Amino acid sequence: MNMPSFEPPCNADGGPRANTILVLGIGNLLWADEGFGVRCVEALRERWSFAAHVQLVDGGTQGLYLLPMVQAASHLLIFDAVDYGLAPGTLKRVANEDVPCFLGAKKMSLHQTGFEEVLMLAQMTDSHPEAVLLIGCQPEQLEDYGGSLRPRVRAAIGPALSMAVEQLTAWGGRPQPRSAPAARGDGVNDPSVGLAAYETGRPSAEAACRVGDDRFLATHA
């Protein structure tokens, strides 16, 4: 698939759009490694602060609802779990016009289809970011409802944040290590579903019966 080159975004009057950086974590926390992108943007918010023109957002699986945010951004950084066909936990960067092409190549879930459409629509409306970077992690396990990030994928969060901070610095996002906790209500997860609360509050597999309820399983002839 051949995609047109990304052009600098413009305001409605045709003038250059102000520098606006959107950092987006997409995925589903409830399906193990599918939550990688959301956990990355959550960790980035906890550890770093940025200039006022940088917005961090838990995009979840919202798909087309993210279009206005993407259209308003001059620079877009995406965290996601992506099937690159590599070893679990491997990180790979994909930039600019290759991002929608790659997301469309191997879809792991419905949210990828939706976000590929978001990028395509942003291009069609001439309101797409000047620069896009996808930081993707090869998942290990997706079919574990209520499950956790697998160790190799969780270990990739730190290196992924380092990649992101380097790029955001180059884009003028002015990242600074936090000296105080981040404020709530800024587009990233509520602490009640943060990684620590999610891990410590999860019942055991037996108590949750994630494989089914014995009262309703056909175990007898």
Structure notes:
- A 5-stranded mixed beta sheet has the order 3-1-4-6-5, with helices on both faces.
- It has one domain (21-189): HybD-like (Rossmann fold), CATH 3.40.50.1450.
- It is α/β, with parallel strands linked by helices and 221 residues long.
- It has helices at residues 36-47, 67-72, 98-105, 110-124, 151-154, 157-170, 195-201, 205-208, and strands at 21-26, 48-49, 54-60, 75-81, 91-95, 131-137, 176-177.
- It is globular.
Short description:
The chain is of the alpha/beta class and 221 residues long. 32% of the residues lie in helices and 16% in strands.
The secondary structure category is: alpha/beta
The shape, in one word, is globular
Determine the strand fraction and express it as a percent band: 15-25%
Count of distinct strands:
7
Using only C-alpha atoms, the radius of gyration works out to 18 Å
Straight-line distance between termini? 52 Å
Helix and strand sequence: EHEEHEEHHEHHEHH
What is the average of the pLDDT values?
77
Determine the fraction of residues in helical runs and give it as a percent range. 25-40%
User: How many domains in all?
Assistant: 1
For the record, what CATH class applies? Alpha Beta
CATH superfamily: HybD-like
What is the architecture at the second tier of CATH?
Answer: 3-Layer(aba) Sandwich
